[in-house]
Amino acid sequence: MLHMHPLPFIGDFTLLLGAIAKMKHYSVVVTLIKRMESFGISPNDFTLPVLINCFCHLNRVDFGFSIIATILKLGYQPNRITLTALVKGLCLKVNISGAVSLVEEMENKGYEPNACTCGTIVNGRCKTGQPGGAIRLLRKLEKGNFEQNVVMYSTIIDSLCKEKLVTEALNLLSEMMSKGI
In angstroms, rounded to a whole number, what is the distance separating the alpha carbons of residues 50 and 80? Predict the structure, then answer.
């Protein structure tokens, strides 16, 4: 694509990079974006979130945060999907408190976290052996405008079972079923 004349639209590059990222070839995406830039092709507000996601999966959430600075410098505004990628990156680095702080900061700046954002933190808490913290977050979500889903409940139930808290898991399953989830 880089050798085509005229060069394809940046959206075409972004689609390709997104597909490569979905195949979990994160370092390839980073390399290709650097290569694009050497050809004078600047990533845009759709390409940069793909890069953030790749950095987070490469355990370089710090680079992901630096891309947020680039997004702002270019005059773009990060969206909920971009910020959720950073939340996931923090959870992958087992920095759950940092992820929770980022969500709170998102809320303070007018970004409304969604079920995916909150589900990411629930999953992070469960993977670090904190099903109690995940349940507290679930209870907090119930008070807000968030729709709980089967993924959140199943993640917590699985974590409770792994912690040998089967009674609590069964109680949560019953609660989930009584809510029609």
Answer: 13
Identity at 100, one-letter amino acid code: V
- Non-local (6+) Cβ contacts of 161 within 8 A are 169
d(CA 73, CA 86): 18
Six token digits for residue 67: 């891309």
End-to-end CA distance of the chain: 46
> Which pair of structure tokens corresponds to residue 22?
């979905």
Task: Record the tokens describing residue 139, joined without a space.
Answer: 């209870």
The reported pTM is 0.77
Residue 31 CB: number of other CB atoms within 10 A?
A: 12
Residue type (1 letter), 169: A
Q: Decide: 60 and 68 in contact? Cβ < 8 Å.
A: no
Model confidence pLDDT, tens digit, residues 37-85: 888 888 888 889 999 999 999 999 999 999 988 888 888 888 888 888 8
Dihedral of the CA atoms 115, 119, 120, 122 (nearest 10)? 150
